[in-house]
Amino acid sequence: MEEFNELKSARLLSSYARLLNGRVLKKALLAQEFGVTARSIQRDLESLRSFLSNEMLPQDVVYDRAAGGYRLTHARPVGLSNSEILAVCKILLESRSMRRDEMLPILDKLVDCAVPPEMLTIPEIESLQVLEPCGSGCPKPVLMMEGLTIDRIQCVGGGRHMRLRLRRGRYSLNAIYFSADPVSAGIAQGDLVDVAFHPQINEFRGERSVQMNVVDIRPSCSAPCPMDIARYRALRTGALTPDQAAVLLPDRGTLGNVWRYLAVCPEKELRESPLCLCRKIVRRTGTEMSLETLLTCLDIFRDVGLLELKRVHLTLSIRLTPGTQKADLNQSQTMQALLRAKES
């Protein structure tokens, strides 16, 4: 029951965030994405309506016949002004009790107000002082900047921390990332990344400069990379429905994209967090792929002996099997389980 409530809460948060962004929600597509029925999505929408009414918010979820879906009335327009971004950035909470795999989905859902590099100036950062004092109940604001190229990585503090030089267009920025190294962060020089950070002013020998205190880094990608893995969990527990199996079953193009990415990796052993690996593949191919689809593809490759797959803490360890380039993927136990569930 607790897991059910958590999944429903995640759906509600995701749906509300999309409505706030001005998107139109279609029940059939949401039901397919989250692996639930259209009736469950309808109940979610009713719950959102009740919440907005009880909180006396000047918003409502209405059906738009022209768009063929539900939208939020009186929602803020897509895109915020600089001052509005600074005002709402405090909604993303900093919690050191959260693991990386817990933080990333929250960042992806809630940090939808990316700031441009030209906005990261000393006067703008000083304007955030209106939010102080920060502490319990009023955390430090977290901003996000997308599409940054990593020009330089310097390990400091005996290799426990990193100094980064980041660039976007004609703007270059300095960053510090505590308690992280290139392997644990899954980054390398030249990577294109999105960065969540605390903006701060660094003072050294009388000189003041802007610095990004990094909270987390993820690979940039232009196509969607959904993070829900409800269908993959159902596959692992043998509770997959035919509709879920039809969505989760990877096609030849998706299997090929994943395999080609793994095959050209220079490292003998690839270690990545599942989400970072998924976003890197999506970025390279420009094709949408969900996290649960990636995990399913990896299981299929492992079943037929194309690779060795281990989970080490919060990362995946992947080693391609030498001399094995071809295999019948239909012989995979995972593939057979998907086909059986789809036809059941």
Task: Summarize the structure in words.
- The structure is a single chain.
- By secondary structure, the protein is α+β, with helices and mostly antiparallel strands.
- It is 39% helix and 23% strand.
- The protein has helices spanning 2-20, 27-34, 38-54, 82-88, 100-110, 122-127, 182-185, 230-237, 242-248, 252-263, 274-285, 291-303, 333-343; strands at 60-64, 69-73, 143-156, 161-168, 171-177, 192-204, 207-219, 270-272, 307-312, 315-320.
- A 5-stranded mixed beta barrel has the order 3-4-5-7-6. It has a 3-stranded antiparallel β-sheet with strand order 8-10-9. A two-stranded antiparallel sheet has the order 1-2.
- α1 (2-20) crosses α3.
Topology:
Layout: H1 2-20, H2 27-34, H3 38-54, E1 60-64, E2 69-73, H4 82-88, H5 100-110, H6 122-127, E3 143-156, E4 161-168, E5 171-177, H7 182-185, E6 192-204, E7 207-219, H8 230-237, H9 242-248, H10 252-263, E8 270-272, H11 274-285, H12 291-303, E9 307-312, E10 315-320, H13 333-343
Parallel strand pairs: 5-7
Antiparallel strand pairs: 1-2, 3-4, 3-6, 4-5, 6-7, 8-10, 9-10
Helix pairs in contact: 1-3, 2-3, 9-13, 10-12
